[in-house]
Design a protein that fits this description.
single chain; mainly alpha
Amino acid sequence: MLKPACLLICLSAFSGVICAEATDSCAGLEGTALSLCRNNQQTLQLQQQLEQQLQQQQERQNQLDKQQREVQQQLETMRAQNEVLRKQLELEAANRSVTPAAKAVAASTRNADLKAWKAENPWYGTDYARTQFATRYMKKLEKERPDLAGRELLDAVSTKVNETFGTKQ
């Protein structure tokens, strides 16, 4: 019975020493050594605090950089949209600035082109299927290729009609 009690006392004393060392690494030192040890501990704690602050600042900086990139992307998108709108406004302004005389000349040219084209394509207005096809195809072409107009447009329509229905007039 004495042996287990003695063993228990030794173990409790040893564990107390271990716990004491874990909480204060400078325990057991005296004088100058104790002062140096405490100063080193304080310096280490300050360095750790500075490292944490530096890490927090770096995280904040990364967040700001990310936000700045997002804002720059938004600005680029807005610039592109503004450019498209500016071009649309220029086109609208150019379309509005066409004089009535210029419109009349263009209309008479279109009429002359249409009369000549109808003479070359006698099926137009007499063959219902070809006429309907030509009308729909012309509308489609005008949307897809706004640069195509006048005789070029009419010739493209007749080419498509001939490809679809054959060259029989």
